[in-house]
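Notebook entry, structure prediction.
Reason for the run: the old model in the group folder had no record of what sequence produced it. Starting over properly, with the input documented here first.
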Amino acid sequence: MLTMPCSPNVVFGGPASWPTVLQFEATLDDGAQAHNDGTYGWVAAGDVHTKWMQAANVATYPEFLWSQPDTEIDGRVAGRKAVNSSQLPSGKVIFGRWSDALIGTWAGFEILVNPYLRATQAEYVINLNFFCAVAFKYSSAFITSSDSASQ
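New structure, fully documented this time:
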């Protein structure tokens, strides 16, 4: 499970809404992280992704908190790139400047091919492991919430 110390935290205290989503950016700007280098974006747990795709920005217009353009693999929240991950705990969402995320790797990749496990189906099982650690250069460049999908 991915756990990253982000600060400060945003508390939704109820269902996610357009104003609470915009509060993420305002909170980040208040933390003196005003330099936008084009890497601002969202990562959320799967349940957040599902709820935000159903939550309307405005009740009278069919636009949702999380949009999924047909031309993109990743989604968009407030016009910024958004991805979902099963590595985050339920209800967790992180917004930040991802150029300040550091990824350290060691031992490279490990690939294990098992031709025996599914031999009766004429299939191979391939496992790929990538050993890494993730940290933040500036923790103030990221904010998080753990209650964004709890309502």
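Summary: Residues 115 and 124 are 5 Å apart (CA to CA).
The old model has been moved to the deprecated folder.
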